[in-house]
Design goal:
Layout: H1 3-21, H2 29-36, H3 57-71, H4 77-89, H5 97-105, H6 110-120, H7 135-140, H8 144-156, H9 162-179, H10 184-192, H11 213-226, H12 230-238, H13 244-259, H14 266-269, H15 275-291
Helix pairs in contact: 1-12, 1-13, 1-15, 3-4, 3-15, 5-6, 8-9, 9-10, 9-13, 11-13, 12-13
The structure holds magnesium ion.
């Protein structure tokens, strides 16, 4: 598999997990079973009344991060932030509470906006909204240190809580290794070793699939560790209940990098409404990496 398959796989994996899980967001596992049996088709609908193949904030904010980095790779905070604000002004259907507050609070300094948001929320800002959009940093930067710095920074722009930036860095270290073709099970074990997340590889998490970043990430790791294909990964997430679209986007992103674009069925990839933007982005990411000295 070449690196382009992995880059495209990561971008499409995020979008497919998002669009499939968007149907079942906020439902319980039992409600999903009752209504759909097992959801396997990309039908839209759900609480956001989606079109089939319509993505939500998870994918749209990932695009903001990706396009912001490519516009200003040396120091992308401003470029990413401009795109966040443009997206916010487009009046998106699905925007998380923490992110909405941070974007409203922004007055020229992202770290201040995020700090004040965290204070306004009484210190409860450890949502999964920065983890869901961080993958592009791992796809774009070949320099590992720079990749980690930008990964953490993009999280801090809206999510002051350290648990968010830590999860983002751990996730993108995994993506960075998978992009090099390392084996999924080993990557999950190595990067979670010595952290509380290692438990998620030992059995089903004892928390709900909520929007709290630690719960979300534990479920993502569990799903990635117990499934054998891209399709199985995103379907597990979509049928889990809770924050299905975000868990699907986060798990789908890594599954896409690992199994590659070729593993994503046309019935999913072909339906994604922003597919032209994803294709163009994949080309630009690959070109940037070539210029930066990747094979
Ligand atoms: Mg969403």
């Amino acid at each position: 598999m070449n690196i382009m398959d992995r880059i495209r796989g990561g971008l499409y994996g995020t979008a497919v997990g998002d669009a499939l899980g968007g149907t079942t967001e906020f439902m319980t596992r039992a409600e999903i079973r009752k209504k759909y049996g097992r959801l396997t088709e990309m039908i839209g609908e759900g609480v956001w009344d989606l079109e089939p193949g319509e993505v939500t904030d998870d994918t749209m904010m990932s695009l903001c991060v990706a396009e912001g980095i490519l516009a200003s790779p040396e120091d992308p905070m401003g470029a990413i932030g401009e795109r966040f604000l443009d997206w916010y002004r487009s009046d998106p259907k699905d925007i998380g509470n923490i992110i909405r507050r941070a974007l409203q609070r922004y007055e020229g300094d992202w770290l201040e906006a995020s700090f004040v948001t965290n204070r306004d929320l009484g210190g409860f800002s450890a949502g999964n909204g920065s983890l869901m959009r961080c993958l592009p940093a791992a796809l774009i930067y070949t320099d590992r240190e720079r990749m980690e710095t930008v990964t953490r920074m993009q999280s801090k722009m809206t999510h002051w809580d350290e648990r968010c930036s830590e999860a983002c860095v751990m996730y993108n270290r995994m993506a960075y290794r998978l992009l090099q073709g390392e084996e999924l099970g080993l990557v999950l074990a190595l990067e979670t070793a010595g952290t509380p997340y290692a438990e998620a590889l030992g059995g089903e998490p004892d928390c709900g699939p909520t929007g709290y970043v630690v719960d979300t990430f534990r479920w993502v790791l569990y799903i990635l560790n117990t499934t054998q294909s891209f399709v199985e990964t995103v379907q597990e997430a979509a049928n889990l209940g809770g924050d299905t679209d975000t868990i699907g986007a986060i798990a789908g992103g890594l599954a896409g990098v690992h199994y590659g674009y070729g593993s994503i069925p046309e019935a999913y990839a072909g339906k994604i409404l922003v597919k032209e933007r994803l294709d163009e982005l994949a080309e630009r990411v690959a070109a940037y990496r070539r210029e930066a000295g990747d094979r």
